[in-house]
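Weekly structure sync, notes
Attendees: PL, DS, HV (note-taker this week)

Item 1: Riboflavin biosynthesis protein RibD
DS walked through the input record. Source organism listed as Spirosoma liriopis. Sequence as pasted into the shared doc:
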Amino acid sequence: MRRALELATLGRGKVSPNPMVGCVIEHDGRIIGEGWHQRYGEAHAERNAIFSIKPDDEYLLPESTVYVTLEPCSHYGKQPPCADLLIEKRVKRVVCCNDDPNPLVAGQGFEKLRKAGIVVETGLLAEYGRELNARFFTFFEQKRPYIILKWAQTPDGFIAGAGGVPVKISGDLSHRLVHRWRSEEDAIMVGTNTARTDNPRLNVRLVPGRNPVRIVIDKSLQLADNLHLFDQSQPTLVYNFIKTDTVGQTRSIQLLADQPLLPQLLADLYERRVQSVLVEGGTALLESFIEAGLWDEMRVFRSHGMLQEGITAPRVRGRLIETERVGEDQLTIYRP
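Item 1 (cont.): predicted structure, written out as tokens:
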């Protein structure tokens, strides 16, 4: 199962809104097939594992165990049901990390397998399975995207220079890592001030990978049209209190001014099937997520250079999960 979990991670950034899934097929202590869900819309892990088996070993399937990180699907989507394929191949046993929280599956895959006489065992390394697909589970269980708050700060606690002037705080290796993170999440978000002062592109340039959906909060629609955010190079959502319309790949979405903003915004992203958001600033936006308790990870880079004055970084909360060096910087990761 650890091998299946390892295989599943190879789909990171390529399979959303589907979950990452890995599968290993074992017979008498020997792996005879393995696979993972490689890209959204393409074959699922179980199908890839089964069709990786050498022709000379196919006869072993009825006496084999299938280790898979998530409940085999039971419905037709982009691909036919994996539960049906396992039944067709008459596998002996299926061992799984987690039940699928998607209402289209939600135990029905296991039920199909058991009715067909296949032994089903669940819960093996379940905690690791939930960690692997934290975005997928958060989306279905909490009806909102998985929220990652990210910023870089100086040792004296500043996130930008005086007046919000952009300052390079973290190093080149950290920048490259952030671009990899962007490629792995569905969307990336900034507030009005960051959009105006930094004029970010919010795309993936330093590593291979897909661009996320860009999100900006511009309550009064004050941002200039010539900002990189509005260059039509990738889908962009502009949440505001003025209007709803679409121009090219830029979609303005009106929210209610007399209701809390973030719950409305996250509810809209849920309806759009956005499963994860990387929030890159600024301080006011980051703090709003923290104060509302609407976050799942906090990733903070700390550099060596002092600023003496500037925009104060958000106050770190939560439980320290991990600390590592990234070039000259220290990266710390927190959970609520």
